[in-house]
Structures are given as C-alpha cells and as structure tokens.
Amino acid sequence: MKPRIESYKGTYPNIGQNTYIDKDVILVGDISIDDDASIWPLVAARGDVNYIRIGKRSNVQDGTILHVTRKSKKNPDGFPLIIGDDVTIGHKCMLHGCTLGNRILVGMGAIVMDGAIVEDDVFIGAGTVVPPNKTLKSGYLYVGNPMKQVRPLREEEIAFLKQSAINYVWLKDDYLAELEVK
After folding, report:
1. Domain span at 53
2. So which residues are the signal peptide here (predicted)?
C-alpha cells in the first residue's frame, strides 16, 4: 500500500528526496515536504485553502493533524502552516495555520493555533495549547493551557532539539531500507 497523496484543484503535494511517508498518511493539495523528513502513521495534512511547508529533517508523528486557514478580507494571506528544519512534532498534535521555526520539539497532544509564531530552539510541553497569534520566544520551555513561558532551556536541552530530529532521520532511513527489501 501507498499513502493517499491527492491533488486539490490540480495541485499535488511535492515530496523531497529520501523522505519517508507512511502508507497510512493522507496528504492533500499544496504541501511541500523537504528532504530527509518523515511523516508517520495516521497523519492527515490538508493544504487546500492555503499551503503547508515542512522543512528538512523534520518529523511529524502518529495521529497528528496539519491544516491551514483560508484567505479572507480580514486576513488576505490567511495562515499557511510552516514547519522549519529539524522540528519534532510529537504524537497526536494539532497544528493549524501557524509558523514554527527551526529546532523545535512540540510535545505529544499539543495544539498550536492560527497565527501563532514559534521562534527557533523552543520546547512546547505535552498537552500545551498555544492560543492564536501568540509568539513563543527562542530558547524557552512553554507548557500549559493556555501556554506559559516556564524557563530558559538548558544547553543540553537545546542540543537535544537537533538530536531528536537526527534520531528520526535514522529511524526513517531504517524504514526506507526495509521497504527496499520488500
């Protein structure tokens, strides 16, 4: 079986090199996934009323929903969903029309809403809710509902942000190698 990769109004997802897309994933419309990224089981992503961009070495884990906000008179650009490089999106997250920088970990079950901007090098704790139009400053841990800035990240936590992405690159390489054997 192959993942469901569908067009919306003639636009198909664009998938980079050496990228793993699980067979139980649905991708629709204007989605671009960069090299060495991985999209795991039961992820649904709809780039229909705006676009989705996923950076190099980023991973989107099981059960996550990715969506966008349509353009309107009040918000002429709407809110696309932009995920930078080396980002780890935990299981069962909801990302909706937000922008994530580089080297971010979004904990399991977190929700990041329309217009939110997450700068580089940020931890978002499991179950955290980031309300619309909030900015999460670089170098901090955020937790809670609604989210609160808790403390600066320690050096080892900042190093882990990159390592987490690398771990998923290794894992997706194992999965790709397994597929080649079949």
Report:
1. 4-181
2. none
